[in-house]
Write a structure and sequence with these properties.
Blueprint: E1 11-14, H1 21-51, H2 58-86, E2 91-93, H3 94-127, H4 132-135, H5 138-163, E3 173-174, H6 181-186, H7 193-227, H8 231-260, H9 269-291, H10 295-307
Parallel strand pairs: 1-3
Antiparallel strand pairs: 1-2
């Protein structure tokens, strides 16, 4: 398939992160530990929020949904990467490839909208505390969450639908560790200009819309915090927002560099590292970023441990 340009590709070969056998074993162990910690951290946080009644509030409902999206992002990429570290067969079928891209991309899109809703939640809680129970009821929160997941599913359905118009015959080798859409464009024997245009428009629109809304929410929050006379009130408000702002900065920074300002030519180590950061490292960090300095989560964990 790699030698005959006119042979339609039905399977791809993922080159992964390295070809060195010794390094593969080291990376396998490293990413296995990262994946296990990611799943324990995110699923553990979901279980804790579900089990402790004190955490049955909109903020933690959104946080559990974010943890689930992070689990999906990591699980769509890491298991296949781990298998390829130890296997000589790095093939992935066209269907598996599209499915991997779909689930990874829909989770990432969902996370964009979830971060926006979480910023709005903090804005209402800090700027309109008296109206908070009315404006952010649990029913409304569930509707927000459902919409974010629906938007993620529909967004990727568009891109996968457009991928179906392409045929792949230039090569069956993807210089990546998962089925990344820009790499699929590189091996298409049909001009992917329409796909690239739609990808760029949606990437810019979604990231710009969600990021601007997050920034507007937090600018208002900042002014509200500065107006607070109580030092304790300021510190509490800042502590609840700082974790979210850190998560937003990491997530949007890497997405912007990869999909809004992609490099030209063959993929390099820089692009792979950036991609690894948002597919593997951010899902690892998020549950700890939101939990370690959160007294309510730590308190809930202690209550659950004492009951056990």
């Amino acid at each position: 398939m790699t030698e005959e340009n006119h042979t339609v590709v039905t399977e791809f070969i993922l080159t992964g992160l390295t070809n060195h056998p010794t390094l593969k074993v080291v990376l396998f162990l490293l990413f296995l530990v990262i994946y296990l910690i990611t799943m324990v951290g995110n699923l553990g946080l979901i279980a804790l929020i579900w089990k402790d009644p004190h955490l049955h509030t909109p903020m933690y409902l959104f946080l559990s949904s974010l943890a689930f999206a992070d689990s999906c992002t990591s699980s769509s990429v890491t298991p296949k990467m781990l298998i390829n570290f130890l296997s000589k067969n790095h093939e992935i079928s066209l269907v598996e490839c599209f499915a991997q891209f779909y689930f990874m991309g829909s989770s990432a899109t969902t996370e964009c909208f979830l971060l926006t809703v979480m910023a709005y939640d903090r804005y209402v809680a800090i700027c309109n505390p008296l109206l908070y129970p009315v404006l952010m009821s649990n029913r409304l929160c569930i509707q927000f969450i459902a919409v974010t997941y629906l938007l993620g599913a529909l967004h990727l359905a568009i891109h996968v639908g457009l991928l179906l118009r392409l045929t792949f015959c230039r090569s069956n080798i993807l210089q990546y560790y998962y089925c990344e859409i820009l790499q699929l464009f590189n091996v298409s024997c049909i001009d992917p200009s329409i796909n690239m245009f739609v990808l760029l428009i949606f990437s810019i629109s979604i990231q710009a819309f969600t990021f601007i809304n997050i920034m507007v929410s937090y600018i208002r929050v900042l002014f509200a915090i500065l107006k607070k006379k109580s030092e304790k009130g300021r510190s509490k408000a800042l502590s609840t927002c700082s974790a979210h702002l850190l998560s937003v900065s990491l997530f949007y920074g890497t997405l912007f560099l990869i999909y809004v300002c992609p490099g030209s030519g063959p993929v390099g180590d820089k692009e792979k590292m950036l991609s690894l950061f948002y597919t593997v490292i951010i899902p690892l960090l998020n549950p700890f970023v939101y939990s370690l300095r959160n007294k309510e989560v730590i308190g809930a964990f202690r209550r659950v441990v004492r009951k056990e």
